[in-house]
Amino acid sequence: MADRNRSRRRKKKSAKKLGVILLLELLLLIIIAGSYYIISKNKKDDNNNTGKIVDNTQDNKDNKDKTDKKDNDDKEEEELTPAEQEALKEQEKLLQEITEREDLIKEANMLKLSYDYDKAIDKIKTYKGIEGGYELYPALLTAINDLQSEKDSLVLYGGSYSSVMQFNHIFFHSLVADNSKAFDGDYDAKGYNMYMTTTYEFEKMMQSMYEDGYVLVSVHDLAKQITDENGKTKFVAGEIYLPAGKKPFVLSQDDVNYYDYMDGDGFASRIVIGEDGKPTCEMILDDGSLVRGAFDIVPILDAFVEEHPDFSYRGAKGILALTGYEGSLGYRTDDPTSPTYEQDKETVKEVARVLKEGGWEFASHSYNHRDMREKSFDFIKKDTIRWQEEVGSLVGDTDILIFPYGTDIESTMGHYSSDKYAFLKEAGFNYYHGVDSKPWMHLKDDYVRMTRRPLDGQAMLEFPERLQDLFNLEEIIDPERPSKDW
Ligand SMILES: [Zn+2]
Questions:
Q1: How many angstroms does the Cα of residue 172 sit away from the middle of ligand 1?
Q2: C-alpha 365 to ligand 1 mean position (Å)
């Protein structure tokens, strides 16, 4: 009985306690709500009264928050006097300008990543704000100073070479994307093993070169045509400044035509523009269906440079060398009877435009892919004109010629002197590229002649010593590649 009374008393007591707690909580809520009202009112007042905005990120963030809040308070805004509204507008403009300046610095830093310090600095210097030019904005001045001091620390050719003559120019053919199809022991398999590189190997090579400090450059930056004081044009070595330890190099890819004989052998079939607006490859599967993916150099290198912008000097990628006898880039634009002839030509133009925008350049690899030393002057003249009419008209004019089979028009090591050269120069070609086991380069007043190093199966399996300076081949060679079988 006494126990029951005690428990009743306890219950009464705890009910009382609960009431007090509830009351306290209510009070607390009122206090919080009240202070929120006061704070938000103060904030709003701040918003209207801030005269000058300091140009720095922290303030900008705070102000942005305020702007967001203000948007939610449209009703209260209506009660503002015209002067207050004017001040608000002015402030919005200032905030927008701060964002603009931040974006500008971000853009400049992107250019800096690919070593284009001049363009980065120029970009900032073009800024015009309400108060005036870039000189009036501390954030912009600091950004320019930072860029300038970084630029001042660069060295010619990264200090790795004393002359552009020492640069590497490496080249590839279409990459093998499906080893099981390329190396299936059929008629073409041996040729693929000799002259092709697999996507696996290409990716390993690029990673290795990147880690070694190699940086892609354009031949047009390696040697530039200038006009001297007498009004005469001539080629001179480009002044490529890079951080110490970087090594400029040129990359090219031959026969980016996706020839018919490669169908079904595990190669891409053409270059297309993907839904994201970026170039990619298409491949035809056994059942005739199409798949898209990074089956060749263009999309692989594009993705690599996107991830490592410092692998490319001013956005340079590589040179794509095209013949004409089976169209271009995988489109049979050589055949006017093709039902898709007109459409294919338009597509190639568009793909080429996107590729060039992304840092790729085009070269003539001749129309018929014949030995240009052996063939007559007349043959070369007709062949060149046909290339320009059928391929150059789609991908654009080019002054780069990549010799079929790597065979130069002349065997002379002196100045070109043949009528073939005179014609080719007249036709607009300035950069001539052959192949040699020991690379060399000539920089003449009227042209540049530069040999290239193949990074194919033959180089890796038959002449590995030639690639020793570039790679540890054990890490590069695709484990699925057959051993030397020629
Ligand atoms: Zn070729």
A1: 10
A2: 7
346 and 272 in a common domain: yes
Model pLDDT for residues 88-132, shown as the tens digit of each residue:
999 999 899 999 999 999 999 999 999 999 999 999 999 999 889
CB-CB contact of 272 with 350 (8 Å): no
Q: How far is the CA of 173 from the centre of ligand 1 (A)?
A: 8
The pLDDT-based confidence of 79 (bands split at 50, 70, 90) is confident
Nearest Cα neighbor of 319 from 273, 361, 358 is 361
Of 182, 174, 155, 159, the closest CA to residue 266 belongs to 182
- Please give the distance, rounded to the nearest whole angstrom, from the Cα atom of residue 459 to the centre of ligand 1: 16
Q: Enumerate the H helices of 114-223 as residue ranges.
A: 117-125, 138-152, 179-182, 189-195, 199-211, 219-222
Q: 368: CA distance to ligand 1 center in Å?
A: 10
Task: Quote the ligand 1 centre to 452 CA distance (angstroms).
Answer: 13
pLDDT tens for 275-315 read: 999 999 999 999 999 999 999 999 999 999 999 999 999 99
Reported in sequence order, the residue ranges of 311-416 that DSSP labels E, i.e. its strands, are 319-322, 361-364, 400-402
**How far, in Å, is the centroid of ligand 1 from the Cα of 61?**
56
The structural domain count of the chain equals 2
Segments forming the whole domain that contains residue 381 = 156-476
Give the per-residue pLDDT at 167.
97
Considering the domain architecture, whether residues 242 and 367 belong to the same structural domain is answered as yes
What pTM does this model have?
0.82
Q: Mark which of 133, 152, 171 sits at the end of a domain.
A: 152
Q: How far is the CA of 355 from the centre of ligand 1 (A)?
A: 20
What is the C-alpha to C-alpha distance for residues 448 and 221, in angstroms, rounded to an integer?
12
Read off the pLDDT of residues 320-364 as tens digits, 9 standing for 90 and up.
999 999 999 999 999 999 999 999 999 999 999 999 999 999 999
